[in-house]
Specification:
four-stranded antiparallel sheet, 28% strand, 233 residues, globular
Length: 233
C-alpha cells in the first residue's frame, strides 16, 4: 500500500503525543509519548483508570486542546499546531461530540439544538431540513418541537447524537454516552451508535469505564499513567 492510500484509510494518526501540565511548582506528565492510528469507519473505545491520561487524550483528539509535543493528524490534516481559532473551526466541522450529560440547551427545541453546529460553522444551507433529517435518523421524527424537559433521558441523548451527526463529521466522540441512562436506554443508545456506524461508516470513538461497552467496539485503546498499554500501532 502506498503512503497516500495508507493516509486515506486513517482518519486519526497520533504520533508520540505528550502533554505536560504545571500544577504549582510540579510538572504533571499526563501523556508520555502516545502513538496510534484509527481507521476510517472504525469503532474504538478508550479506557483507563482515573489519572491515566484518558481525558487529556480525548481533549486532544476532539481538538479541544493541543499536545505539548508530537503530531496529531485528523482526516489527513496536521491539526496539533493550529491556533485556537483554527482549531475551533476544525473541531466544529470534523468532530461530533456526545456527552454523558447531553449538554442540550433547555429552552431550545430538539430541532434548534440540532441546528447549533451548523450555525457555528456558518453552514446555513438547508439547515432546518438537515436537522430534521438527523432527528429522523435517530428515531425522533415526532419530537422535533419538544424541549429537553419534555423528553426522556434516552431521547435527549438521541438529540445529542443527531446534533453530533448533522455536520457529517470525520469522527463522533462519545464520552460515557450511556453513563446517565438506565440499562434499557443505554442499550438502545449503543445499538443506535453502532447502527449509524454500520449505515453511514461514521468513525466512532467511545470513552468509557464500562467493559460491557468496550466489548462492543472493534478495538480498545488502553492508557495507564500517561502511556499506551493496549491498542497502539
Amino acid at each position: 500500500m502506498n503512503d497516500q492510500a495508507s493516509q486515506d484509510e486513517n482518519v486519526i494518526r497520533a504520533v508520540n503525543l505528550t502533554k505536560t501540565y504545571r500544577m504549582g511548582n510540579v510538572l504533571v506528565e499526563a501523556l508520555r509519548g502516545v502513538s496510534f492510528r484509527i481507521r476510517r469507519g472504525e469503532i474504538v473505545s478508550i479506557m483507563g483508570p482515573s489519572g491515566s491520561g484518558k481525558s487529556t487524550l480525548m481533549n486532544i483528539l476532539g481538538c479541544l486542546d493541543r499536545p505539548t509535543s508530537g503530531d496529531y493528524y485528523l482526516d489527513g490534516a496536521l491539526v496539533s499546531k493550529l491556533k485556537d481559532d483554527q482549531l475551533a473551526m476544525i473541531r466544529n466541522r470534523k468532530v461530533g461530540f456526545v456527552f454523558q450529560s447531553f449538554n442540550l440547551l433547555p429552552r431550545q427545541t430538539a430541532l434548534s439544538n440540532v441546528e447549533l453546529p451548523m450555525r457555528y460553522s456558518g453552514n446555513g444551507r438547508d439547515r432546518r431540513e438537515r436537522a430534521r433529517q438527523a432527528l429522523e435518523a435517530v428515531g425522533l421524527k415526532d419530537r422535533v418541537n419538544h424541549r429537553p424537559a419534555e423528553l426522556s433521558g434516552g431521547q435527549q441523548q438521541r438529540v445529542a447524537i443527531a446534533r453530533a451527526l448533522v455536520n457529517d463529521p470525520a469522527i463522533i466522540m462519545a464520552d460515557e454516552p450511556t453513563g446517565n441512562l438506565d440499562s434499557k436506554s443505554g442499550k438502545e443508545i449503543m445499538e443506535l451508535l453502532l447502527k449509524l456506524n454500520q449505515e453511514r461508516g461514521t468513525t466512532l470513538i467511545i470513552v468509557t469505564h464500562d467493559p460491557r461497552i468496550a466489548e462492543q467496539t472493534q478495538r480498545v485503546i488502553r492508557l495507564m499513567d500517561g502511556l499506551l498499554v493496549e491498542g497502539g500501532e
